[in-house]
């Protein structure tokens, strides 16, 4: 198939300083949790994006000098010549498919605790470091001499970036992470010298750095700058406004080779679909392009080529910046080019990818299970090994795990039967995507359902709840159970590892009840959240929206604590407060007696009682393993029935977020009829540190 002419605009080349981008698909810098620890894995991941047609492919942030680093987060480094080969590997990997290789140079300044190097952090103004964990370290104010030194270090870093082979050098001043933003913002810059005060003064360093970098390497490299569209402080008095950004661009309109516009702090830019639609930065971007003759790059979790075209046609953007959409589908541009728009695996805006960076582990993606496994396991998002035999496979359960397994097995050419108990595929997605703010999660089901329908070797049977005797009777060669999980009613999770004591005087509900429209009578609901991800907060929002009086009790110091890793926690707390939910932190439900819910302080044990018409327990989930257990009880029948293997995957194996289930389905499909690794061999490659000669 060929490209729809509607999208031709996206494939028009564009000058970027001294280089030319072959199209308008611009993979903006994004973290991956691998960085300097997993450089070959990160290079392979970028290589596949270049292969997938992105015209420009960037690194994550690269700490450009050892006096500023953000341990424990793992990004890239360019501290001396020894770092060049690692970065050159990345640039080469990107060049292999004719994309421009971009590097984002960062001096994190007031964002850098320097735990690794033990250098004293430096910032425009002396303030405590601004990190996720409020580290007890302060940055000192940069003297004019420090600024002069820093400019020299920056020149050196630019030269090294060029030596590593990069075509585009981006100076990072967005998300609260780069020193340029720290100088621009009156939150972090309260200087009274030539670098503080007026916008002209606050932008002095920006001007100097761009000019220095151009002078050093601008003959062959494009020099871009990444700025936030606005930065607002809690008080609203300080920061860097959208109006000031416009003035800055007006003042220096043609200084950088492109303006790359991100937004606010990271959580404002990488906002989840629960809190913002695609293209939510539209009003902040619009009109900026008229202030400059240089290209404007912008982001907005764009996954639709129509929306991308309209961004360019309307004059808002020249390049379509994508981080998450390029993770969910590294081949997005190529699919548009080949007239396969319906094959795009759209990002669902869940921010599981970001949790990799936040936990210093290789990032996962809910939609793309091959992300960061390209090198480690040799998984390509669009290619999979052909089947090893003519074996048939039965997949039981069509949730994310079963759907991914059936689709990927079908792509390998296996004859697959997918049996689902209910009258639709999707499993937990069907229920959860009905909850407030989670409708984009439907894409996990929709993408796989559509792909499976294109695969002649996969047959789906709905309303087919299978028991062990049927499975044995059918005689498939391989059977994989993806039968999911159910929320526990007894409160067992982290705080309570045995059931909560109850006299049953308050009716207990689970998320499954609510998602299946079984709502409490009465109006006072206590929610007990010992799960700590999104579910408790989403159900609080749901119930408050229906007029219930909601008290949310959690043993954690935060509502939805794990969403600190998806950058949603602040928005969640804010939304619940505004919905009238009474939030009780550091408390655990202790018992239910005589119509009262007793809850205690997790520190002192002091207890209080709440009157409630219902208790909603969001604790842990139990795997649905009855079919697994009854099959295993009849193992002797496997061979006579022609069954070679029976496996269990996803939530049925061990409950976890959706990304884990998709991954389990994919891994099962990849590894069917391959080595089992039961011999203890490592199932993936690692990059090991080369020991120094001592
Ligand atoms: P996961 O996240 O692991 O994919 P889900 O709970 O989303 O798990 O999906 C499990 C699916 O399995 C559900 O759609 C459920 O209806 C289906 N299922 C459970 N038991 C059976 C069974 N015995 N036969 C067929 N389908 C089943
Ligand atoms: Fe999008 Fe979620 Fe994948 Fe991140 S993890 S790219 S937000 S689908």
Low-pLDDT segments:
none
Structural class: alpha/beta
Strand order of the largest sheet: 3-4-6-10-11-14-15-16
Query: What radius of gyration results from the CA coordinates?
Result: 27 Å
Strand content: 15-25%
CATH fourth-tier homologous superfamily of the largest domain: Aldolase class I
What is the helix content? Answer: 25-40%
Mean pLDDT: 96
CATH domain fold name of the largest domain: TIM Barrel
Helical segment count: 23
Largest sheet: 8 strands, parallel, barrel
CATH architecture verdict of the largest domain: Alpha-Beta Barrel
Q: Which molecules are bound besides the chains?
A: adenosine-5'-diphosphate, iron/sulfur cluster
What is the 3D form? globular
Q: First CA to last CA: what distance?
A: 59 Å
- For the record, the count of structural domains works out to 3
Got a strand count?
A: 32
CATH class wording of the largest domain: Alpha Beta
Any key phrases for this structure?
about 700 residues; alpha/beta; TIM Barrel; FAD/NAD(P)-binding domain; 8-stranded parallel barrel; about 30% helix; binds adenosine-5'-diphosphate
Structure description:
The chain contains 23 helices and 32 strands. It is of the alpha/beta class. The chain has three domains: 5-21 and 54-299, Alpha-Beta Barrel (TIM Barrel); 392-484 and 624-671, Rossmann fold; 490-622, FAD/NAD(P)-binding domain (3-Layer(bba) Sandwich). It has an eight-stranded parallel barrel, surrounded by six helices. A five-stranded parallel sheet has the order 19-18-17-20-32, sandwiched between helices. Strands 23-30-24-25-26 form a five-stranded parallel sheet. Strand 15 (296-298), helix 10 (305-313) and strand 16 (319-322) form a beta-alpha-beta unit. The chain is globular, with a radius of gyration of 27 Å. The model has no long low-confidence stretch (mean pLDDT 96). Iron/sulfur cluster binds at residues 324, 327-328, 347-353, 365-367.
């Amino acid at each position: 198939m060929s490209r729809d002419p509607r999208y031709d605009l996206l494939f028009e080349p564009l000058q970027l300083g001294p280089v030319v981008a072959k199209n308008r698909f611009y993979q903006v810098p994004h973290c991956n949790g691998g960085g300097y620890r997993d450089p070959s894995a990160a290079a392979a991941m970028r290589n596949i994006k270049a292969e997938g047609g992105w015209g420009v492919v960037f690194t994550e942030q690269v700490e450009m000098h050892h006096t500023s680093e953000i341990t424990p987060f793992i990004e890239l480094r360019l501290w001396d010549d020894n770092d060049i080969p690692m970065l050159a590997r990345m640039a080469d990997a990107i060049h292999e498919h004719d994309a421009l290789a971009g590097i984002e140079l960062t001096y994190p300044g007031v964002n850098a605790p320097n735990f690794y190097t033990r250098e004293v952090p430096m910032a425009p103004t002396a303030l405590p470091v601004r990190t996720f964990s409020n580290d007890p370290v302060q940055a000192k104010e940069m003297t004019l001499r420090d600024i002069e030194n820093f400019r020299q270090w920056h020149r050196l870093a630019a030269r090294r970036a060029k030596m590593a082979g990069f075509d585009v050098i981006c100076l990072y001043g967005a998300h609260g992470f780069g020193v340029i933003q720290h100088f621009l913002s009156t939150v972090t810059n309260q200087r009274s010298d030539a670098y503080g005060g007026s916008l002209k003064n606050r932008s002095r360093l920006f001007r100097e750095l761009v000019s220095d970098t151009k002078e050093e390497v601008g003959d062959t490299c494009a020099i871009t700058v990444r700025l936030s569209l606005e930065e607002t402080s809690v008080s609203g008095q300080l920061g860097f406004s959208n109006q000031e950004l416009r003035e800055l661009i007006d003042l220096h309109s043609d200084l950088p080779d492109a303006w790359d516009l991100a937004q606010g702090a990271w959580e404002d830019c990488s906002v989840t679909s629960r809190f913002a639609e695609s293209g939510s930065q539209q009003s902040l971007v619009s009109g900026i392009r008229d202030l400059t003759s240089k290209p404007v790059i912008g982001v907005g979790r764009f996954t639709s080529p129509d929306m991308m075209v309209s961004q360019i046609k309307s004059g808002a953007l020249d390049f379509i910046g994508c981080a998450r959409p390029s993770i969910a589908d590294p081949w997005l541009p190529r699919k548009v080019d080949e007239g396969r728009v319906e094959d795009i695996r759209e990002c669902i805006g869940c921010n599981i990818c970001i949790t990799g960076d936040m936990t210093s582990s290789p990032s996962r993606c809910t939609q793309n299970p091959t992300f960061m496994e390209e090198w480690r396991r040799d998984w390509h998002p669009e290619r999979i090994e052909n089947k090893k035999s003519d074996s048939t496979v039965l997949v039981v359960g069509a949730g994310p795990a079963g759907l991914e397994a059936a689709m990927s097995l079908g792509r390998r050419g296996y004859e697959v039967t997918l049996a689902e108990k209910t009258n639709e595929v999707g499993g937990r997605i069907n229920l959860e995507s009905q909850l407030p703010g989670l409708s984009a999660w439907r894409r996990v089901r929709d993408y796989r359902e559509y792909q499976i329908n294109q695969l002649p070797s996969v047959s789906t049977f709905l309303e087919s709840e299978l028991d062990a005797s049927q499975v044995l009777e059918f005689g498939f060669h391989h059977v994989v159970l993806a039968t999911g999980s159910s929320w526990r009613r007894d409160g067992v999770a982290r705080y309570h590892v045995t059931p909560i004591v109850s006299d049953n005087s308050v009716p207990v509900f689970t998320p499954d009840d609510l998602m299946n429209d079984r709502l409490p009578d009465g109006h006072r609901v206590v929610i007990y959240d010992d799960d700590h991800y999104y579910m408790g907060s989403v159900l609080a929002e749901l119930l408050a929206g229906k007029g219930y009086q909601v008290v949310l009790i959690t043993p954690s110091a935060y509502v939805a604590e794990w969403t600190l890793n998806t950058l949603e926690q602040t928005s969640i707390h804010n939304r619940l407060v505004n919905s009238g939910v009474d939030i009780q932190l550091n408390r655990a439900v202790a018992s239910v007696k005589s119509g009262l819910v007793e809850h205690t302080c997790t520190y002192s044990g002091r207890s209080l009682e709440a009157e409630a018409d219902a208790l909603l327990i969001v604790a842990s989930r139990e795997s649905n393993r009855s079919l697994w257990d009854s099959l295993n009880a009849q193992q002797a029948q496997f061979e006579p029935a022609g069954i070679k293997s029976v496996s269990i995957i996803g939530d049925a194996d061990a409950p976890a977020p959706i990304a884990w289930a998709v991954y389990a389905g994919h891994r099962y499909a990849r590894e069917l009829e391959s080595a089992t690794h039961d011999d203890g061999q490592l199932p993936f490659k690692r990059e090991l540190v080369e020991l120094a000669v001592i």
